[in-house]
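Quick illustration, no need to memorize.
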Amino acid sequence: MSQPTILDRLSVFDTNTISDALDFLDLRGATFGLRPLWNCTKMVGRASTVEVAAKTDAAPTVHLITPVIDAVTTDDRILVISGGVEGVSCWGDILANASKRKGIRGTVIDGMSRDIDGSSEVGYPVYGRGVTMISARNRLVQIGSGKPVQMRGVTVNQDDYVIADNCGTVFIPAQRIEDVLELAGSIEHRQTLMVNSVRAGQRVSDVMHDKEFEIILRNDSEAKVTESGTAYTSFNPKKPSIEDTELVALFKNSDTPSVSDALDKLGIHGQAFGILPLANYKGVTVGPAFTVRYVPATDPPGSVGDFIDDVAIGDFVVIDNSGRTDCTVWGDIMTQYAGLRGIAGTVIDGVCRDVNRAIEDAYPLFTAGRWMRTGKDRVQVADTNEPIGIGKVRVNSRDIVVADANGVVIVPRNRAHAVAEAAQRIEKSEESIRDMIGRGATIAEARKTSGYHTLQRRRKNADS
């Protein structure tokens, strides 16, 4: 599997998280007022800078920005245009069509655009101050490109990174991108935990206290917070990898039904049969699998639960106990310790006990049932991070686990991007159906329009 690029890694975040990371690093990059000028998609890319200014003579010139578009040779570019004049356009539909054809990802203007419907029709993202109908012809001229420009008080250099979404536009200095991405991953993980804390009943005044945000600045091995709001200091020096954080983020807005449908469409068996949530969890828990296999105990018996010291922050412990329901492999001590170490949750092909602790702590636990008899002297750990079976599904170490109140699905790590993309397409189609029936369409009409009956249909050449 190819390694994700920097742009792939950046694309899993939103502008809010990146803005926060820049704040913590004392870097300027977030802008105010450069918003999407139609309902366009999020974009990430590298800056190709352009500066325009008011025209001061009557001599004919090449239309501004066209030389920059013609010179683009890669598919990672975002045009960053500074110097716009209030009420005068420096972008239009012809430029949008030309840029789209060249594979340019979008445009950010510290100025105005006209013919915005033309950009929308070809699906070309444009961010800026606003729209107008007044042409740039004989009013504006290009005075430079490929040099530092000022965008709402932020200096943007050629090849800096750009991310823009519904909240606005952020620029990231190219030489600090690794620092920003690493910190953004920590911020995103922590904010997810904070949301889960609120959903679990934690007081928002405690969850959002300044001291809790200050933890982000510390080394991850020094302090974290669990879903229940408990600070864990020096409990877990094992941080999630950058790739783990990126893959987990792919599924942050999906639920298990949509992921299950995506797996069906791609011909992947990943639904864990008979594995159910301990409680009616309101959110979705996602994490890379830390696999554990139990076997009947030897004489003398071996280790039962010491593996948990090797589990990283954000991992999902996935335990194969061969579906045994006559003895447990997880109880309240494991729940408490997992929570303190920032472990995402636990899946067991078997049973758990001491369930009150897990329910009170809102620790995500998914099992084949619950019973009170201990597994000590009955089972022992045979190996970790080897392939196992859970609910009739094969799970490899570091596969992506997605779990919620509906159950558990396993996404093969090397298919995570394809599954996430398919899930998102399915979710959009189903949202379209809900919107149509909300506006008076019959369900038959809505399903036909959206192609509902083919959403989960397996591709002819899908991998099994």
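The first helix runs from residue 6 to 11.
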